[in-house]
Spermidine/putrescine import ATP-binding protein PotA (Rhizobium leucaenae), 368 residues
Amino acid sequence: MIGQTLALKGLEKRYENAVAVDGVSLVIRAGEFLSVLGPSGSGKTTLLTMIAGFENPSSGQIMIGPQDVTFVAPNKRNIGMVFQRYALFPHLTVAANIAFPLRMRHMSESLIRPKVEAALAQVHLGDYGNRYPHQLSGGQQQRVAVARAIIFEPPVLLMDEPLGALDKKLRETLQLEIKGLQQRLGATVVYVTHDQEEAMTMSDRVAVVANGRLAQVGSPLELYRSPVSAFVGDFIGRMNFLEAEYLGLENGNHMVRLRGGNVVSTAPADDDVSAFSLGRAISVAVRPERLSLAPHGRDRGAILTGTVDAAVFAGSFFLFFVRTQTGNNRLLQIQMPVGHAAATLRRGDLIDVIAESNALRLFAKTEA
Ligand SMILES: Nc1ncnc2c1ncn2[C@@H]1O[C@H](COP(=O)(O)OP(=O)(O)OP(=O)(O)O)[C@@H](O)[C@H]1O
Ligand SMILES: [Mg+2]
């Protein structure tokens, strides 16, 4: 199977009293795994149903390879689809469910049988062909849905929260299986999820959506390291936001005064500096793993002083919640390695907060 390029151009879906998808333009490369990540109601399902052809866009264009499919019927688009709920035919056996798209295409029974067996093997359900859906677990049903979606070797595969109903362990197993399958097949995949870890694990690129618009599209690493807005920074991984006042540039570094008094310098500007003006209230974003803490007065160069509110053992690290004057009423989160001396700090201890160089990112206040 060779994946095809999927191009969305100015795609919009307007309902009477809502704009579900608001001008999405995006090219998904052949064989690419792209996740669409966003909060509930942000337009993910609407976007997918337009690509699948179950909804017509209000405006815009959908291309698969060289073909404009904007107004092509769903069954003529050659797209595989897996929904959040298993959506298997209850009265058909597993094998018949998987064979269904081939029978629809009038393939001869002698060709169908080996294809179904191969698909069953690919989703690790070799012995389950004669069962009915209600005789399977949730994870097994979802595997059948995946097998049914890939059996006709579609160049484009759409999945709408296919693992949403499953528990965490099983979800992680199936994430790897789906990803492995996609790589073997070379299919172009658009995968909807609101679970950012899932999007980060599986994807070549992630499209973050908010209010029907693309907030940012990039590799998981790009989104994590260089979010273009406070929204994206907050949505991907953990992020602290500190209130601050912008003081201007010094030797190419942004200087800001954190609420509570400390002046800190942040990474040289690669963004649009003109967005910040002198004395303006801004938001300083910093990841928990790029901060550390130490007993008060021990370290020079601390950016903040605070008190420990809680220390949570998270298995592979400690997460400290620290109360500061600057934290916008949110507790500051600081991630420390297990075994670090600071891990013995307790609730109520007075501490200093230290930031790695280049760890701070500035955002205009209105975005937070
Ligand atoms: N048929 C419809 N008529 C009117 N509004 C609709 C219709 N379908 C969806 N919407 C609205 O469009 C917006 C986007 O809905 P959509 O189902 O695409 O969100 P989503 O990102 O998939 O959310 P979730 O994560 O909850 O599944 C919502 O505000 C929703 O209420
Ligand atoms: Mg949805």
About this structure: The pocket of adenosine-5'-triphosphate (ligand 1) is lined by residues 15, 18, 20, 38, 40-46, 194 (CB under 6 Å). The helical segments are 44-52, 94-104, 109-122, 138-150, 168-185, 196-202, 220-225, 230-235. The first helix runs from residue 44 to 52. The first strand starts at residue 6 and ends at 15.
